[in-house]
């Protein structure tokens, strides 16, 4: 049984901001694809094909026929009785395919780095906004004379986080842990 959320006339099925963001992300991906050079497009198509089951079946059939035709008991002339040519062809093919895969991986890594940078910026903005909201909430509580929550958490949560300080702390703690393990 499938569960479905029926949206009413007043409630959209998906928030407009989410729909807008999805649209923006799709447009950005299309823009990135359009910026690819001809060699990057070729490398991507080759990588897409070589990473498919069609390629596996095609290679299996091709190598199988090659081996069958060159077996000693199979009738007919032998063009590669020691399979040296087959090994050479497979080696050269693997060199080129690994290069195409590396080209595609490098491009994908750049995209992943870009997305990680975007994610970090959004997270930093969200953290800043939450910090501001906490400060405003504390001010409202003070203005209304409401009792604040006990503990030091509120004071700490009102402080802006400096990403460079977080990275410095991470680096320092990693060095300390490495020293302990050595």
Describe the structure in your own words.
- The protein is mainly alpha-helical and 182 residues long.
- It is elongated and about 100 Å long.
- The longest helix has 61 residues.
- It has one domain.
- The chain contains six helices and no strands.
How is the topology of this model organized?
Layout (H helix, E strand, L loop, with lengths): L15 H19 L3 H13 L2 H17 L14 H61 L8 H5 L5 H19 L1
Question: Which labels suit this protein?
Answer:
single chain, 182 residues, mainly alpha, 74% helix, 0% strand, disordered N terminus
Provide a count of the helices: 6
Overall geometry = elongated
Q: What's the structural domain tally?
A: 1
**What percentage of amino acids are in beta strands?**
under 5%
How is the biggest beta sheet arranged?
none
Termini, distance in Å?
Answer: 56 Å
Computed over alpha carbons, the radius of gyration is: 30 Å
Total strands? 0
Low-confidence stretches: 1-8
Structural class: mainly alpha
Q: Multimeric state of these chains?
A: single chain
SSE order in H/E notation? HHHHHH
Indicate the percent of residues in helices.
Answer: over 70%
Average pLDDT reading: 85
């Amino acid at each position: 049984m499938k569960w479905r959320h029926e949206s009413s006339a007043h409630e959209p099925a998906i928030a407009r901001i989410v729909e807008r963001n999805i649209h923006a992300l799709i447009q950005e991906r299309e823009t990135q694809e359009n910026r690819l050079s001809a060699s990057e497009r070729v490398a991507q198509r080759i990588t897409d094909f070589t990473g498919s089951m069609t390629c596996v079946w095609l290679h299996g059939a091709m190598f199988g026929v090659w081996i069958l035709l060159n077996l000693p008991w199979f009738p007919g002339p032998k063009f590669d009785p020691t399979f040296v040519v087959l090994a050479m062809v497979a080696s050269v093919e693997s060199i080129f395919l690994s290069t195409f895969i590396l080209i595609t991986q490098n491009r994908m890594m750049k995209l992943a780095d870009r997305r990680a940078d975007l994610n970090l910026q959004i997270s930093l903005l969200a953290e800043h906004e939450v910090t501001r909201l906490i400060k405003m909430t504390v001010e409202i509580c003070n203005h209304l004379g409401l009792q604040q929550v006990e503990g030091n958490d509120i004071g700490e949560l009102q402080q802006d986080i400096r990403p460079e300080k977080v990275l410095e702390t991470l680096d320092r703690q990693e060095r300390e842990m490495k020293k302990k393990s050595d």
